[in-house]
Structure prediction request, 377 residues.
Amino acid sequence: MTDNQATKAPTMRDKARKFMLEPYLDWAEGEGVPIYEDFAIDMLAIESKPWARFGVNGAICHLKGRDDFLTSFLFEIPAGGSSAPTSHIYEEVIYVLSGHGSTSVELEGRTHSFEWGPRSLFTVPLNAKYRHFNGSGQQPARLAATNNLTYLMNLFRSDRFIFQNAEVFPERWGGIGYFAGEGEYVEVLQGRHQWETNFVSDIAGFELKAMPTRGAGGTSIRFILGDGSIGCHCSEIPPGTYKKGHRHMNGVVIHAVTGKGYSLLWYEGEKDFHRADWQHGVIYAPPDAMFHQHFNISAAPSRYLAVQMGSVRYPMTQGKRDIWGPQGNFAKPVEEGGMQIEYADQDPRIHEIWLKEMLAAGLESRMGAFIGAELKK
Prediction:
């Protein structure tokens, strides 16, 4: 180094490169696939382009209400095609949007394969080598993959460490039969009951457990996939009903699974509601501390899948411990320091909007049993 180089004053560009960096976003931009950022994204409608790293078409989805831990990828496997053999040190939960196929996973020199279809849910154990195959010779298959690469890339800042790591984690492989859809039911507390497995063939038909705290006869179950730290739960809203309003932290990625409906969202003190319409394929994430409420406007039950960093087994943050612990506040009324609005305390406009939606859809409301006499239509 010359004296000139040693004493040269840093340029503004040099200074900028040392301030407010986010390596994950730099990595994403360098992958050469479309990046979508919005409040809600229809993963069945967005365009995908060749993603060399994974050997399939893909896109990256950044939701406005995401946190600093999770991101969502779209993978589109062409008809009769397959992904490249891959392993990585980040955890990933995969929800099948469309198509039929299979995934092969290498563990201890043995290959485990399982078949999936629309609305299947699964994970590949941490850092195991795997490959996805499209079972159709005519139609592409689309997979939604939610993972914690955001945090790990920002932490390690090493593509090689994340995608070329030789470490194995046999404690994450799960029990015999976990790739065949078998699992273990772990009963804890209402709203925290768990099904532990690696694969669920169809979450639309999976048996859920009663969860009356969220109102209107709703049901739910929490999935522990690959003993991971990414938490998932599937909830169902019966026809003719809607859930209680509530709020939580950033980073809860919601997949619409069955039925059709909408969600109203608002910050405390806001006069107007924001609205997100959903059906299978749509993902969205309510921003931090923003109240939101889910409404079923179909003749059948509506289910959704929520994916987030932290689970009832591994909360990961103090905030999640406060929510899900034995004295958790996730279902307590706001007046008691909780995060939920009871039906009796909700804005009257919410039910009026609901009744108009049901009338337009030619459906009958069943909310009278939960909120008293119905308002006039």
Residues 21-159 form a domain with the Jelly Rolls fold (CATH 2.60.120.10). The longest strand covers residues 56-63. Residues 348-360 form the longest helix (13 residues). The helical segments are 3-7, 12-16, 23-30, 149-156, 159-163, 318-324, 348-360, 368-371.
